[in-house]
Amino acid sequence: MHRSITMVGGLLSAAFVLQKQYLDELRLFHELFKDFNSRYATLNDALLKVTKAERVEEEKELQAIVDYFNLCAEEYWWYRAGYIPQEVWRSWCRGMLQYIENQPIREHWDGEVTQGSYYGLTLERVRAGSKP
Predict the structure, then answer these.
(1) Do 125 and 89 contact (CB within 8 A), yes or no?
(2) Range list of H helices, 52-130
(3) Rounded to whole angstroms, how far apart are CA atoms 32 and 68?
(4) Taking the model in full, what pTM does it have?
(5) 86 near 129, Cβ under 8 Å?
(6) 3-state DSSP call for residue 114?
(7) DSSP code of 85?
(8) How many other β-carbons are positioned within 10 Å of the β-carbon of residue 83?
(9) pLDDT by residue for the chain (132 residues), tens digit each?
(10) Contact at 8 Å (CB) between 50 and 102?
(11) What DSSP state is assigned to residue 1?
């Protein structure tokens, strides 16, 4: 009898620990998601302006592009660490492609990626991530 009570107690404790870990991971994802979306929102206008131009002319626009690349790389890092769900990553990759495949932005992307920046995020990985 004592042994079965101990076993049930152990199982309940393990279930509690796993549930707590799951909730902690959900909270972390929620914080990451809010942070990433907030940072993207501050870059959105400058990025849209660049997509309509033939080339990047202002320092502010170039900085927005670099900040966007850094944001994408951070998202990729957290995805690879297992904290960003596949369906969210897929959606983000589709959004990234709209910018990275735009000519003025693509020119900067190609130059940056050849330097080994961005935690290994490449156009090929973004394309692969965008597919179901």
Answers:
(1) no
(2) 59-80, 86-100, 103-113, 123-129
(3) 15
(4) 0.86
(5) no
(6) coil
(7) -
(8) 15
(9) 667 778 767 777 777 777 888 888 889 999 999 999 999 999 999 999 999 988 888 899 999 999 999 999 999 999 999 999 999 999 999 999 999 999 999 999 998 888 888 999 999 999 999 998
(10) yes
(11) -
CA distance 111 to 57: 16
Place of tokens 């003025």: 104
- On whether the CB atoms of residues 127 and 93 are closer than 8 A, the answer is yes
Long-range contacts of 39-47 (CB under 8 A, 24+ apart): 39/67, 39/71, 40/68, 40/71, 43/67, 43/68, 43/71, 47/99, 47/105
* Cα separation, 48 vs 57, whole angstroms: 14
As a whole number of angstroms, the distance between CA 106 and CA 99 comes to 8
Burial class (CB in 10 A: 0-12, 13-18, 19+), 23: exposed
CA distance 28 to 114: 32
Q: Which residue, chain included where needed, has tokens 């596949």? A: 86
Distance CA 69, CA 59 (A): 15
